[in-house]
Amino acid sequence: MISFNLNQHNAMINWNSLFNRQQEISTEEVKNLLHSPAAGSHQLLDVRQPAEYRTFHLPGALLIPLNDLAERLAELDPERETIVYCRSGARSNAACQILRAENFRSVRNMTGGILQWQGETAIGGEQQGLDYFLSGSYDNPFSMAYGMESGLQQFYQILAKRAEEPKIARLLEGMAVFEEGHMARLAARYRNSGGEQDLAAQSPVPEGGLGMEDLREAFGEQLRTPEAVLQLAMGFEAQAYDLYSRLARAKGLREFALEMAAEEQQHLNRLSGELDRLLTEESTRA
Prior knowledge:
Elements: E1 23-25, H1 27-34, E2 42-46, H2 50-55, E3 62-63, E4 81-85, H3 90-101, E5 106-110, H4 141-162, H5 166-192, H6 212-219, H7 226-247, H8 254-285
Helix pairs in contact: 4-5, 4-7, 5-8, 7-8
């Protein structure tokens, strides 16, 4: 609502005053937020088109194209902080106006859009997760997440055995242990919710497990160097974070899924730290 005081001293207004001033947040601030324990306190909204989203998007982002936003407001929580982004910041700025007009409590526009983003991204549509490890349909979200964790565990175990640098091998072995812990937590939560199926039996990983040749066929050059392996692993962890963030929107799963997403973010941070180390050493040698 805009009011006007049309006395002789305020008879003229600038057209900018007709629009709410936007609260902004930088890409670096968003990146820090995604890496913080408070990551689950906000909702991340992508207002680009589906094709843009499938190419890459920020982990955990909900896709609602700008032209659909007014009709899909019910999918958002007006009480949670909402961070909006698009390609460059123009569409997200317009989206912020719409949300503010609908009395959303806190709305922030990511300046510069995804063009300025230097952090991790996920790929695929909203119904797509880790497409290499997940295929087909699942009876419940626990079996889907379990299959993802099982595939990631084998990915780390295989590459740990092939790693030439002991520190990289230990990191990958540790990541495999983390995934095993996630599998146990998923199975326990599933049983506590009344589930009776064997989650391991529903895993899409082929009988006998994955092998190095399977990974080479799927990822090729992305396994050529330790740096490339870590970058590939970071992409997987970003997608795992993305998947749990989506599952958090399901009734009854929010708290558990956000806890799992936060742990995936910690995994991502560990991989990121090791990649920084390798890149620093490489630049020093150069």
